[in-house]
Design brief:
Layout: H1 2-25, H2 39-49, E1 62-73, H3 76-89, E2 95-100, E3 103-111, H4 114-124, E4 132-139
Antiparallel strand pairs: 1-3, 1-4, 2-3
Amino acid sequence: MKSVVTISVKCAVFVGLLALSSLTLAQTPGKVEVDKDPKVDSLIGNYLVGGKTAKGGAGPASSFGYRIQIFSGSDRKNAYDLQAKCQDRFPEMHTYLSYRDPNFKVKVGDFRSRIEAEKMIEEMRPSFTGLYIISEKINLPKLDTE
């Protein structure tokens, strides 16, 4: 008698679990409604199209990428001369001059991949010596939204 009761209890528990699992699988698709501030869309749009700086001015979005370093040294005049030379020869490229005591550094370009930077080095090699690819935060190009 005891074994018949335990078998019937086990069967009842098993049937109950099957019924419970079928209820969870039989959910009907619902509708999700998102209540958000309209400024969220404009912030996302600004980020994707070029972003805005913290001070409110227009500024490009940034990400990590590569630049080509064309000068590193303590001679300020030489740094400015090389920057001007690079801007004359490659006007489509942005140049960046930075100073960290005691050295000036001149870097050019905003490359998303190392391969892009290596291609540009091959074009620049006849005009400049000592070119290095540097991994750092770059300014992303503005997207064409039209």
